[in-house]
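Translate structure to sequence.
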């Protein structure tokens, strides 16, 4: 069992212990792991599945969560008492009878975590292939808009400074030539029609980044 005071950086943690450090329920943990929104677990033995703590910490950090501020999440009561809801007509009575299912103020605040916008280059991935590359000063918000018009099953983010976004996005698009970033030329030096900077401007921007 994991020490409730912190999540180790190494080793493995099972679902029942891991959710103490997450603002989600166990069922959501399994769902997110399945659809790529959270690291997938490892089969330790025929009957034991657990998460690699190192990957979990990477997830925390990539989502702008300060690991120092991660606090264990107290489990909500799992009372098996049968509650009679028949005849309830007002919200106050319903909430009072349902109170055993709900977290109190202290539990909610203690399980909170800092939220920071992520600035960087993001990669939309489908079936292990990079299909789109973009940039944003609020990556999470920007990626959510792509769910309407692009098919992807995973994402990756590389942080950088806001004034470096155009240069790095252009470089990554030229390097990987993702299919959803527009057509690429067939010349000896391929380029995309949709890059923030021209080759000349990108070279100058990289010189500035490197301090040349």
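Result:
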């Amino acid at each position: 069992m994991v020490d409730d005071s912190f999540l180790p950086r190494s080793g493995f943690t099972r679902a029942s212990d891991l959710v103490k450090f997450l603002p989600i329920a166990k069922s959501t943990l399994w769902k997110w792991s399945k659809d790529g929104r959270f690291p997938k677990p490892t089969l330790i033995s025929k009957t034991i599945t657990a998460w690699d703590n190192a990957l979990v910490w990477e997830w925390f950090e990539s989502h702008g969560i300060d690991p120092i501020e991660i606090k264990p999440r107290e489990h909500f009561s799992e009372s098996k008492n049968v509650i009679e809801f028949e005849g309830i007509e007002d919200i106050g009575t319903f909430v009072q009878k349902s109170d055993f299912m709900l977290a109190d103020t202290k539990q909610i605040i203690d399980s909170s975590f800092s939220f920071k916008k992520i600035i960087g280059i993001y990669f939309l991935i489908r079936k292990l292939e990079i299909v789109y590359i973009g940039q944003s000063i609020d990556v999470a918000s920007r990626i959510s808009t792509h769910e309407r018009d692009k098919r992807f099953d995973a994402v990756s983010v590389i942080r950088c400074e806001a004034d470096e976004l155009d240069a790095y996005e252009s470089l990554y698009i030229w390097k990987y030539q993702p299919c959803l970033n527009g057509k690429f030329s067939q010349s000896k030096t391929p380029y995309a029609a949709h890059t923030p900077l021209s080759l000349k401007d990108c070279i100058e921007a990289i010189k500035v980044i490197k301090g040349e």
